[in-house]
């Protein structure tokens, strides 16, 4: 499993764009392929919304994130999304294994 912390910022938090954003993320959470993501992509947690900025946060399992570039690029070019931060993460047990080797 290749887990990523996925943070996506809404570009324009107007009511119309917020509804569009929530609809898109809701559809993606239920079925990532419905928004054009590769079949192997799945949500592992979330989505959650920040109460400090117009940002959604979720955990996603993406075996190879390269094919997701096209989907995300199209959404960015539509003006809906400002930016995305995709952070690879590992289970805590992997950190403990590292510490044992130090």
Provide a descriptive summary of the structure in words.
Helices cover 35% and strands 30% of the residues. The chain has 102 residues and is of the alpha+beta class. The chain has a single domain (3-101), classed as Alpha-Beta Plaits, CATH 3.30.70. Strand 2 (42-49) and strand 3 (55-61) form a beta hairpin. 14% of the residues are buried. The model has no long low-confidence stretch (mean pLDDT 93).
Architecture blueprint of SSEs:
Blueprint: E1 3-10, H1 15-30, E2 42-49, E3 55-61, H2 68-77, E4 81-88, H3 92-101
Antiparallel strand pairs: 1-3, 1-4, 2-3
Average pLDDT, rounded to a whole number, is 93
Gross CATH architecture: 2-Layer Sandwich
- Strands, count: 4
Evaluate the radius of gyration: 15 Å
Outline of the structure:
The chain has 102 residues and is α+β, with helices and mostly antiparallel strands. It has one domain (3-101): 2-Layer Sandwich (Alpha-Beta Plaits), CATH 3.30.70.
Pick out its properties.
102 residues; alpha+beta; Alpha-Beta Plaits; four-stranded antiparallel sheet; 3 helices
